[in-house]
Amino acid sequence: MYCNPGSICETRANRLTAQQLKFNTAAINDGILLVSGAGDGDTGGGLHALDGEASETIDRLSTAGITLCENRLARLLRTSLNTGGGEILIYDDRGVSHYLRVDELSDPHYMTWDGQHLIVSSTGTNSLLWITLDGKVARRWHAPGEDDSWHLNDVCLVGRRVYACAFGKYPHYRGYKDHLMKGDGIVFDIASGRAVVTDLCAPHSPRYFDDAWTVCDSLRNAIVQVDAEGHRRQEAPLRSFTRGLAVTDDYVIVGESVKRGSYDGSIRGSVAILRRADFSFVARLEVPFREVSEVAVVPRALLHAVKTGFRTNPLRVSESDQLQMFRDVGIEPKHLWAVSERLTPDQFKVRVAAEIPASFVTGKLTLVDCIVENLSDVFLTSEPPYPVNISYRWKSTLPPISVDRGDGNRTLLPRMLLPCSTIHCRMEVLAPDIEGDFEITVTLVQEGVAWFHDIDASNACSAIVKVVRTDSSASLVT
User: Which helix (H) or strand (E) holds 18?
Assistant: First the structure.
């Protein structure tokens, strides 16, 4: 069932097994287990609550981190790198009390509360931001290197010291992408730079308890516990990518995400419940989305507030339910958003402008800003079954030199592109592995149908650029 963001969902309670019920009633006590889903690409997102006997989807608004700030709940909405900015919702016991739009955030992942600020990881800018409850940025910390070169994600406090989690210390944009399984991931003290946990693969969710660090060793599908001397006490292999971790008096609850890239809706994410004492397996609970971002135990009183959301005004509630006209006649839409139908040749009409640099570095990713205007009379979207994406093609100016990466990476449209409307976005461009002069063509592609500029050459923006090789001795940032 789909629910408007912040609405009260009347969902059918999913009965839990006796073992799972024992966990819920004994471990959480007066709290509820709240699970967020990021919703990247095909995965779907939202908030899901596990409360006593019920398993309930609250909404399907894509969410990254969630954290308690005293008697309130902060919720970091998911925004991708190519759209920019960030949004945070703050809930009190009545519903949404604050909406924060923080334009300086880029691809934000997680946050924690220090008593005065939300410390938020701005992954896209390789930085942490200290944000007040009126949305002002009070402090910044920036890791060395280009944007998203370390992939800073989660952040946590131990006393007054701030620790962060990173895929590795790299100098270049997304330099970690070819090194994810090399064990370069770390948890580190941002003030001293000292790593407290090392040899991790794409780590997330560091937590300090029982005089030790516990962290998701995500690409190894596990969680590990490391003592103050850096020795591994114990670890628990799980069934899939681990991310999101909550701790109770007796249990450790870990999010498990399904591998990206498949539209198979039958596979779901889950949370695994382990005994805190020895990491032995207790139970597994499914959630309605494939990617789990965060897991938190929150006061039961906040469940009603999260369900209510912005719907605190009875008049607005009665006017704002976008699905009511369907439900009144007994219809529940099968898709949350519009789908992308196959375009006809006369519907491949766009105008593309891009800020293409004069040179690229061989084999290196570069961010390129572009503008796309829809000149057709149809809606363009990156949803299945025939998604429309932004991409590019490389062509050597000196044939017969071939380019292995002629067809470029895909960038999703930041939102549905209406007829006669325009969007701004950032796309990742991967340069060829060989030096020389090349023509790069930035355009759109409808997957499984056609490239826009193959239908009409005016549907693209092209430039002649140089691809050069840099010093191969460049090393990791230390």
Answer: helix 18-27
Separation of alpha carbons 406 and 460, rounded Å:
15
Look at residue 334 and tell me if it is in a domain: no
Residue with tokens 């701030």: 162
Cα separation of 368 and 366, whole Å? 6
Residue 230 is predicted with a pLDDT of: 85
Residue 475 lies in a domain: no
pLDDT at 333: 45
Q: Tell me which of 292, 327, 362 is where a domain ends.
A: 327
pLDDT on residue 52? 62
Low-confidence ranges of the chain (pLDDT < 70): 1-30, 40-43, 52-53, 261-266, 311-339, 400-406, 471-478
Same domain, 186 and 257: yes
> What is the rounded CA–CA span in Å between residue 384 and residue 260?
15
β-partners of residue 92 are none
pLDDT at 263: 56
| Rounded-to-integer distance, Cα 380 and Cα 425, Å | 15
CB of 323 closer than 8 Å to CB of 329: no
Q: How many domains does the chain have?
A: 2
pLDDT at residue number 42: 57
Q: Is the peptide bond before 432 cis (omega within 30 degrees of 0)?
A: no
pLDDT value for 21: 41
Tell me, what amino acid is at 264?
A: D
- CB–CB of 372/423 below 8 Å? yes
Contacts of 224 (CB under 8 A, 6+ apart): 197, 200, 214, 215, 217, 232, 234, 235
**Euclidean distance between CA atoms 343 and 320, whole angstroms:** 32
pTM: 0.76
Amino acid at 4: N
DSSP classification of residue 220: G
First-to-last alpha carbon distance for the chain, in angstroms, is 48
For residue 183, is it within any domain? yes
Distance CA 76, CA 108 (A): 8
Cis check: omega of the bond before 385, within 30 degrees of 0: yes
User: Tens digits of per-residue pLDDT, 290-344?
Assistant: 899 999 999 888 888 888 887 666 544 544 444 454 456 565 544 434 557 899 9
**Cα–Cα distance for residue pair 87/85, rounded to 1 Å:** 7
